[in-house]
Amino acid sequence: MTATKPGMRPAIPHFSSGPCAKRPGWSLQALTDAALGRSHRAKIGKAKLKRAIDLTREVLEVPADYRIGIVPASDTGAVEMALWSLLGARPVTMLTWESFGEGWVTDVEKQLKLKDVTVLKAPYGELPDLSKVDFKSDVIFTWNGTTSGVRVPNGDWIKADREGLTICDATSAAFAQNLDFAKLDVVTFSWQKALGGEGAHGMLILSPRAVERLETYKPAWPLPKIFRLTKGGKINEGIFVGETINTPSMLCVEDYLDTLAWAKSLGGLKALVARADANTKVLADWVAKTAWVDFLATKADVRSNTSVCLKVVDPAITSLPADGQAAFAKALSGLIEKEGAGLDLGYYRDAPPGLRIWCGATVETSDVEALVPWLDWAFTEAKAALPKAA
Question: Which end of the chain, N or C, is surrounded by fewer C-beta atoms within 10 Å?
């Protein structure tokens, strides 16, 4: 039986979890003031990079005594800089509940080869037991698990009087969730996530405690040039006023500035969080009345409002072998993409089969509302196409 196609498609069907949707109303005209063909070290280049740092502080509500730097290689580069520059002074506790957190474990154990490492792990859909974290150690975690749709509920579990540093990969949380900076010593994210900027540039935010570590501790291993945050034993202040370690794309800088200006015009962080929450509520209301689907996150208070991960719970699908369930999930996203009703909805390759729908602030709620009927349509179509049992 063929289902009737919905009558309306999202105006902007972009639901990728990175790079994410551009801000509403974006066009190439927004980039006409880019400092193209100019040195990033020229007065105009430095001014734009400094403006990007200042607007980041304003919109994200970063404390005045925290340093903000633009660094190479997206969020990955920012996290790697922190790990290679800061770790080794204390034992390390690592929290992992999805693929990116697992990647940081691999780096610390197999690349840095640190010995005193505790890994607190949970399966997809859940969080580790946060009460077991030893804050005498340095603690590394993702605020929002992009590939699992599971986030920490808040920063209350982090001790204010901690002895170690907290290093937080916040790339799909920044600008959509309230980060508790008082509890965070290192925060990283990338432009292409919650504000829909362009790729290859990362942001590194350091607390005074993190700066103190950099100035009093020298790692046992050599650091490549793009990881070096100090000069002569002191923090390289230039990095945190726009003097980037390597050459940034001034076109990407202009795009980031445009989106930051848009975010400020809405009302800043509070408005951005509200937009993401509204988008996720559309899916939550639909899931509550739809038998075939559920959130991958097992508890509502740890459910992401950006990278929303869904699983198929219809018995006809869950009874299939693992490869059959994966094929069904791919069929779902493929049918919707073919219709132009929702792009890049596929689950991350290491995650359980399902759908992943970006609901960050640059997505319009009306587009999420228009997507929902297509999810039901695709499920009916894909299920009808399954081979009939003998």
Answer: C
